[in-house]
Design a protein that fits this description.
Length: about 475
């Protein structure tokens, strides 16, 4: 008897977490043998491997926790979810196979077929379920791997021989599966806290006037009650040259960010490498943060469905009754899919001693026409504060782009909770996209930046002719 794996060529020995995956084996009897009383025994070992490790045999020393271990399953008539050992919840309509051994002991064989005549073939599905990995997206350092062994036991007879006679034969087929998530996600937060033009005097190393640059700090920092905008890029992972799954909808909390039913079909019928870019905002609050005032920049939930693969092999003369007419393999669609959740990067939430708001009138200035910009600075503390102001022009003094009036350098004294408005009048000498002068405002008490427009791009404005 010859055993052929019809699935590995399309999936490259990978499978998708969060659903049942089907491996289809083709059993071909020899031309001079009848195979009677065909039985199956399965063995499997699950392990974790570093992401940097190439696919191969799993390490026995790095065993997967049972709560997360992939499990061989079969179709069940039960309509309620099954609970295995009080920890692993199986999908609706599926149950644990009884012919599986997870150690060196021999499992209980299950019957596959009473007879496979000489030269005939049949399909045998192996279905295995793997719950979604508990390791959060970007923090993942390992992946799960399953090595399995299929033992086919049967009685070998010459064609037309005595059914009661025959020799016991065992054929072994080994395989290995590396598990992948349906999608990967990357988060790109917009500048916040010390990375913005108005850091508000946040007491963080990246915001010190004499310290390092805010962009050089790896930690994300934001002021309490600050609204941070985040761009999330979803990309479907691949099973060989095929996509693993399709997006149905994406939500951030109770807000739907994307729905395939109301949008185009780009992510409903994706190709390998297709990316979906989404944008959302989060209001960060210290009272809702965990210990250490750290909070994730939102949580994105993806409602998805697997992209099953069709069997392309010529099966006209093959017994495919075990598939019940459903000639697909790879990841299978379930009645109820568990959403895939991605947590945004962690951000430290800190109190800002000051708050600053910028306004400009008119919003679209004209050449050689004066316009006004205002900085409204508020002292959020119960202490008197001293601030140092400087308006710097990066332009050539001999050929200025702007004429500016107002106090270019000044020391300010703010009483507790006082609000002060700083006014500047500008006039552009050129039309188009112009870089206006940069304003800096520092705190004498904290030696931190309250306003630091120098490294930002927010100073560009468009001047009409």
């Amino acid at each position: 008897m010859e055993i052929t794996d019809l699935t590995e060529a399309q999936t490259a020995n990978t499978a998708v977490e969060g659903t049942v995956n089907r491996i289809v084996l083709k059993l071909q009897a020899g031309a001079d043998e009848d195979c009677r009383d065909i039985r199956v025994v399965l063995k499997c070992i699950n392990s974790r491997k570093p992401l940097s490790e190439s696919p191969g045999e799993p390490s026995p020393a790095n065993v997967v926790d049972f709560n997360e271990a992939p499990i061989f399953v079969r179709r069940s008539q039960r309509r309620a979810t099954a609970d295995v050992a009080g920890s692993v919840v199986l999908p609706v309509g599926w149950a644990l196979r009884e012919d599986v051994s997870n150690d060196v002991s021999q499992g209980v064989a299950s019957s596959l077929a009473p007879l496979l005549g000489a030269g005939q073939s049949l399909l045998m599905p192996l279905e295995i379920f793997c719950p979604l990995d508990r390791q959060p997206g970007e923090a993942r350092t390992t992946f799960r791997s399953t090595s399995y062994e299929v033992l086919i036991l049967y009685k070998k007879l010459h064609p037309g021989g005595n059914a009661g006679a025959g020799d016991e034969v065992t054929v072994v087929r080994n395989g290995c599966i590396d598990w992948i998530t349906p999608f990967s996600a990357r988060f790109f937060p917009q500048p916040s806290g010390p990375r913005k033009a108005f850091p508000g005097g946040i007491l963080h190393a990246s915001n010190l006037v004499s310290g390092g640059s805010a962009t050089s700090s790896g930690e994300l920092v934001a002021a309490n009650n600050e609204i941070v905008r985040i761009r999330c890029v979803l990309e479907t992972n691949g099973l060989g040259t095929n996509v693993a799954a399709k997006v149905k909808s994406v939500s951030d909390g109770n807000e739907v960010l994307y729905s395939s039913s109301s949008s185009n079909i780009i992510m409903h019928q994706p190709r390998l490498g297709t990316k979906l870019s989404l944008s959302y905002s989060v209001t960060l609050q210290k009272h809702a943060a965990a210990s250490g005032n750290m909070a994730p920049l939102g949580t994105v939930s993806v409602d998805w469905t697997p992209a099953s693969l069709a069997l392309h092999t010529d099966l006209d003369s093959t017994d495919a009754s075990a598939l019940n007419g459903n000639l697909v393999h790879g990841p299978l669609a379930l009645e109820k899919m568990v959403p895939l959740t991605f947590q945004g990067p962690l951000c430290r939430i800190m109190d800002a001693p000051f708050s600053v708001k910028l306004s400009q009138r008119p919003s679209l200035p004209k050449v050689c026409s004066p316009f006004c910009i205002k900085y409204r600075v508020t002292n959020n503390t119960a202490k008197s504060q001293s601030l140092k102001l400087a308006m710097n022009s990066d332009a050539d003094e001999t050929a200025p782009q702007f004429l500016a009036s107002g106090k270019m350098k000044e020391h300010l004294e703010l009483a507790p909770f006082e609000e002060r408005t700083l006014n500047f009048t500008l006039m552009s000498m050129l039309a188009g996209e112009i870089l206006r002068p940069a304003m800096t405002l520092t705190s004498d008490r904290y030696q931190t930046w309250v306003v630091n427009e120098t490294p930002t791009k927010s100073r560009y404005l468009f001047v009409m002719p």
